[in-house]
Amino acid sequence: MPALTGRSVRGAVFALLLGMACSVPAFGQDPVHSPGNADWAPNLEEARQRAAAQKKFLFVEFGSRDCRECIRMDNSLYRAFDFEALLVPMVPVKVSLDSEEGEALARKHGIRQAPAVIVKSPEGRLVVVSDGFSNPQDFYSHIRKEMDTYNALARKVETQDVAKLPAAEALDTGRELYQRGDPGSAIPRLRRAIAAPGGKPSERDEAREILAAAELDSGDVKSSRQTINRLIETTKDSDRRERAEIFRAQIPLAENKPEEAYALFQKFEKDHPDSKYVAQVRAIRERLGPGIPKP
């Protein structure tokens, strides 16, 4: 199963820098204060709760104690009127890459360096990923562009009659929703892409591939297994079938059945000795650790 990560969203709004004094604490110290006194949450969990309750976007800024660029960017951004305007519909919070939760969140979204920002919608969809920005102009233009892109998607989702969608539109919307971390909204659209009359075989194949991942992410292991097995049975694309077999082998891990997963990975190596995925499969199998029967 190919990795379906959220798009790396890059973008910015022109910053009108004002000569305002501001206090920018190091990560993990006192609450942040910016010129307009935006209400920064003290930690990530409280920020998530506020965003959900107030139906606002979640603005997460990543930094670290040894990030000199973070201090420079903080001084530039927090002196900007546009930054305050940006935060009006958002709940902002600072997260350190040095912390356990910061490291986990950064890994999930492919953040490699600070400073970086992610923005999530009130529904928890990924809206923006801005990784390693170095000047306010780029930051703002990226944010504006990607917010516009997301808002267009949100309007489309709100007006769609899923039961009447053409296969291609159902697939496109379902794919983007899944990539943005909303499997619940993606699933009905992906199922429509499979069932819609006139759909192409390649569209049905891709819809099943993404659907299996979305179902697994949603905790519906049974449906995920049924979907991926159906893809293996019906696809004419040998490369897609191999990816599906690899994905099927990972499903038992969600059920805490490493022995079953090990056996399926072992079977893949035997059935496809010349596959370009053999090295990847072998590495996964070896990482399952001691205690699993070896051939």
Description:
With 295 residues, the protein is of the alpha+beta class. Helix content is 54%, strand content 8%. It has twelve helices and four strands, in the order H-E-H-H-E-H-E-E-H-H-H-H-H-H-H-H. A four-stranded mixed β-sheet has the order 2-1-3-4, with helices on both faces. A hairpin with a 5-residue loop joins strand 3 and strand 4. Helix 6 packs antiparallel against helix 7 and helix 8 packs antiparallel against helix 9. The radius of gyration is 22 Å and the shape is globular. The two termini are 25 Å apart. The relative contact order is 0.10. The N terminus is likely disordered.
Distance from N terminus to C terminus (CA atoms, Å) equals: 25 Å
Strand order of the largest sheet: 2-1-3-4
Structure class: alpha+beta
Structure annotation, total helices: 12
How many β-strand runs? 4
Spell out the helices and strands N to C. HEHHEHEEHHHHHHHH
Q: What general outline do the C-alpha atoms trace?
A: globular
Taking the sheet with the most strands, its summary is: 4 strands, mixed
> Into which percentage range does the β-strand content fall?
5-15%
| Rg calc | 22 Å
- Unreliable segments (pLDDT under 50, ≥5 consecutive)? 1-33
Helix fraction?
Answer: 40-55%
> Could you report the average pLDDT, rounded to the nearest whole number?
85
